[in-house]
Amino acid sequence: MSGRYGVGGPQPPSIGAGGPQPSDAGIAASPGTRAIRDESGTETVRTTINGEKVTAEVPAEELLLDFLRDRLGLTGAKQSCEVQVCGACTVLVDGDPVSSCCFLAADVDGREVETIEGLAGSDFHRRAAEAFMRHAAVQCGFCTSGMLLTAKALAARGIGGDRDQIATAMSGNLCRCTGYVSILDSLTEILGGDQ
Amino acid sequence: MNAAGQSVPRADGPLKLAGQAEFTGDIRVPGMLYGAVARSPVGHARIKNVDTAAAAKADGVVAVLTGDDLADIDPYYGHALRDRPVVAIGKVRFAGEPVAVVAAESQAAADKAVLLIDVEYDELPVAASLETALAPDAPLVHEKRARAGAAHGLGDLPDADGNVCYRYSFRRGEVGRAFDAAAVVVEGEYTFPAVYQYSMETHTTIAHWHGGELTLWSSCQHPFLVRQEIAVLFGLPLDQVRIIVPFLGGGFGSKSYTKMEPLTAAIARKAGRPVRILNAVHESMLTTRRHNMTARMRTAAAADGTLLGRTAQAWLDTGAYADNGPRVTATAGDAAPGPYRWRALDVTAHCVYTNTGPAGSYRAFGATHLQWIGESQVDEVARRLGLDRLEIRRRNLLRPGEEVRPGGKPLDADLIGDVEKTAAAIGWPESPASHPAPAPGLASHTEPADLMRPTKLRGRGVSVGLLAAGAHPVSMATVRMGPDGSVTVLVGTTELGQGARTVMAQIAAGVLHAPVDKVVVRGTDTRYTPYDRSTGASRSTTVAGLAVQRAAQDVLDALTETAAARLEAPPQLLRPAGGRIEDPEGRSMTHAELVRARFGFDGGELIGHGRVQPEGGSGSYAEGPVFWEVCAAGAEVEVDTETGVVTVLRTSTVADVGKAINPQLVARQDEGATLQGLGNALFEEMHFAAGGALLNDTLLGYRIPAFGDIPAAMSCSIVENGDGPGPFGAKGCGEGALAAVPAAIVNALADAGVPMNTLPLTPERVWRRIRELKIS
Questions:
Q1: No. of helices (H) and no. of strands (E), chain B
Q2: Which range among A3-12, B445-454, B494-503 shows the weakest confidence by mean pLDDT?
Q3: Chain B residues with CB-CB distance to A83 below 8 A
Q4: Are B382 and B754 in contact (CB under 8 A)?
Q5: How far, in Å, CA of B140 to CA of B134, rounded?
Q6: How many CA atoms lie within 13 A of B749 on its CB side?
Q7: How many structural domains does chain B have?
Q8: Cβ–Cβ < 8 Å for B716, B667
Q9: A57, A137, B477, B747: which has the fewest C-beta neighbours closer than 10 Å?
């Protein structure tokens, strides 16, 4: 009964500086097209994170969440359930919300990643933050990053206006503090208002 | 406008919205290693051998800790009972108990190495349920009686009695006579499930030994109590244990008292480097949980609805180690009578060891366990006597000033007003048109023949109870004002999402009449932050808040003294307003001017001290509580008799808070507690196998409420009668709704025709009950 599902290793938090990790023989890489795969079990990832180009060698099995948090120091995405239920680790990959706890870092090769650190400062974030503050929709804050990133994806898809539709679309983001009402009030305003 | 009483925005909101709030798991201490814990796969066994050789040689591994490494210390801890070894010694008592810990250069290396640890177990009979643990020939989870812990506060502990580790009981009046005089007696047996608190941030601790001192960064609610336990464990003076508390990603009681800190400190001591242990969810589920319980209750009432007597026995499953079980058990016992006037009571609550994960605090503990049972019996009495369910409560509820328990604090709330508000908020009483009457024969479950009709039935319920709140009333605070007028509040309350830092800033700003954004409250560092007993029992605003109020008043007194001298005005005529002190003629000085005037240059600072301690007593549990937290709620539910699915349509809660320092944050507390109550009532349940293994140990198998579970209507009424002992007449909130909502849901479901004695109200359980009623 050992530890955890995640297997990513820690590295100094500087973008592009991640070095190779010891390989994990026997852990299969997920299916999908992959540009580079060398003998050491590491892969070269060329990606764009929050608008910045990043190239890194990562173990094939490294999770995107660990890559972001431990290598790049982007700690706004949080680890919680590790089974793609709670949404605390949500980031956007090519605009789609993904659970970075169950998504391989190698799979962002050639794709764009947006985290809360990138979202912060945007016009969407400014409007969302204003609504969340006014409704006191932030409590412990552990779910907040994931909520905002999922909301941005909903906005991009034109989902909004209808409270029930938003609630359904947000079902992959859990919050144990607020009772959801204040978050739903905020999102209904943000997504239902002028886009 | 005075900051105290306004819905000012949360001070930590912008940081959290930007993903910049620092939690323990975000911290990287230079040289830090990563821990992984080897846990027992079996529920009860002697440890024959632990072979760590392969793990110790694995890539990146720096140290491996087992029970053998603790020979130089007294390795048992537990604030109530010192029954728990830092890591298993000789025996494991639950599946998931730490047997060894690896510290390695990376999490991946630690996780791989821990799989190489080879443990030989000699398995023992397992008592993984209350039934098996209480059987005459039950295996003993602990062979020896544990010593009392440093903070049990429960008086003399009873003698060991099988697996019962603590017992709380009281008798009042003559029970036999009360029941003999009854026109109606309601009785039943009840079951409450094991529940996981699920704070989204799992337990996380970093330990760093340096120069003989120990520093811990930890997701803990009670840093000062943890410091005390760690100091005793490792034989250190208190001031050589430093605990730093970053933001917590929720707590709800799961991070109260000592959790992963001893294990993390022990492996860091062996490794000689800082070590972090960050639990996975399945590990946190086995670190602490809510007690499952079985109970029996009887209620006697006269023909006019006067409640006469009640007997209750409860058995709470505290798992393999007591944790806060004794206190939970005592609180459950106190919740058994409910807030009513009785002629006689006979209550016993037992705290029982089993071979399962340890159980401790979870929001509104004890009250959540018993309120739904007591309140369902009050409803059943009313039903049998043909009385209105609100009327029976009006007749029997305690009034302000009445005794709740002998020698304790009298009632400090208007319960009748509170319960009437919860009822009104769900439209009760109301016109029949808006509330479809149950089908004929369904109002009473004695005639369930029509239950098989494929239809949806609706019912409404209310519940009311009391929770002893405030814990031990000891809190200190310091308020510092610099020569620019900025204010720093040092207070040991943990910000776990409830908004404590915002509220403490509001209290200080309210006293000083300073702009609230001039006041900063940071996290606890026990090296600098004054003592605060704990963040729990809804005590922060009331007890720590009172210390902050007094500390701010101390600063205000100094400002006033200086202003009196400078303005040559009598101090009693001076008033604080808008960041200034002003005299009746309108002359004034700003806070900054006053601090500089006092010290004669652009430096120095005013330091105010505030202290709360027991007044006129020892502050013990028996003499308390600091205040009674009201647990009142209403609910309307719909049950599908074809599927057994229960839908909560409406809920209402009452936050009887004396004075709301921040009304918006009060409402958030009730909303969050309502959803947790809904989860506890409808579907949250941990399942342990007969061998002790936790079967649903991820959020895939353990569901918590999501967006889709919000009732169509939720309301929270804030009651401000100024009757609290805290600052500005405040008293705490945040837990009551969790005790009250499940009880209101159970009563609403019974009103719909389906009385239930077992939680949670899963579709299968409800469906079976509907069929059972049909054939009975």
A1: 18, 30
A2: A3-12
A3: 281, 698-700
A4: no
A5: 10
A6: 35
A7: 4
A8: yes
A9: A57
Residues B328 and B382 in one domain: yes
What are B125's two structure tokens?
């009979």
pTM, 2 dp: 0.93
Single-letter residue type at B334: D
Q: What secondary structure letter does DSSP report for B540?
A: I
- Give tens-digit pLDDT for B587-604: 999 999 999 999 999 999
**Are the C-beta atoms of B94 and B43 separated by less than 8 Å?**
yes
* Option in A139, A167, A181 nearest B708 (CB): A167
Q: Return the C-alpha torsion angle B1, B7, B11, B13, nearest 10.
A: -150
B639 and B717 share a domain?
yes
Q: pLDDT band at B407, cuts 50/70/90?
A: confident
Question: Of 1.10.260.40, 1.10.10.10, 2.60.120.10, 1.10.150.120, which CATH number belongs to A120-192?
Answer: 1.10.150.120
pLDDT at B239 over 70: yes
How many C-beta atoms lie closer than 10 Å to residue B12's C-beta? 21
Residues in chain A: 195
**Chain-chain contact of A141 with B247 (C-beta, under 8 angstroms):** yes
Catalytic positions of B: 735
The CA distance from A124 to the nearest CA of chain B, in Å, is 12
Chain A residues close to B708, C-beta within 8 Å: 167-168, 171
Strand partners, B352: B164, B317
Are the beta carbons of B218 and B339 closer than 8 angstroms? no
Of the three residues B581, B612, B643, the one that is the final residue of a domain is B612
Q: Which of B547, B536, B474 shows the shortest CA–CA distance to B511?
A: B547
- pLDDT of B284-329, one tens digit each? 999 999 999 999 999 999 999 999 999 999 999 999 999 999 999 9
Is B2 in a helix, a strand, or coil? coil
Alpha helices (runs of H) in B295-399, residue ranges in sequence order: 325-335, 367-385, 389-396
Tokens of B776: 């009975």
**Chain B contact for A24, CB < 8 A?**
yes
CA–CA separation, B301 vs B303, rounded Å? 7
CB contact at 8 A, B627 and B724:
yes
Closest CA relative to residue B243, chosen from B440, B492, B612: B492
Asked whether B43 and B358 are in contact (CB, 8 A), the reply is no
Rg of chain B in Å (alpha carbons): 27
**What domain range includes position B650?**
409-464+627-776
CB contact under 8 A, A140 and B248: yes
**Is A180 within 8 Å of B674 when comparing Cβ atoms?**
no
Take residue B516 and report the two structure tokens written for it. Answer: 């609230």
Q: How far is B384 from chain A (nearest CA, A)?
A: 36
- Taking the C-alpha atoms of residue B641 and residue B635, their distance in angstroms, rounded to an integer, is 19
Q: Among A3, A136, A180, whose Cβ lies nearest the Cβ of B36?
A: A3
The DSSP string of B104-166 is ESSHHHHHHHHTT-EEEEEE-----SHHHHTSTTPPPS-SSPPEE-TT---SSPPPPBTTEEE
Instruction: List Cβ neighbours of B593 (8 Å cut-off, separation of 6 or more).
Output: none
Both structure tokens of B289: 């949980």
Q: Residue A164 in contact with residue A77, Cβ under 8 Å? A: no
Q: Collapsing DSSP states into helix, strand and coil, what is residue B342? A: coil
Tell me the C-alpha to C-alpha distance, in Å, between residue B311 and each of B178, B251, B363, B370, B587: 11, 34, 25, 12, 67
Same domain, B451 and B477: no
Asked whether residue B521 carries a pLDDT value surpassing 50, the answer given is: yes
What is the C-alpha separation between B146 and B81, in angstroms, rounded?
A: 6
Q: What is the pLDDT of residues B650-705, one digit of tens each?
A: 999 999 999 999 999 999 999 999 999 999 999 999 999 999 999 999 999 999 99
Residue with tokens 């509170």: B418
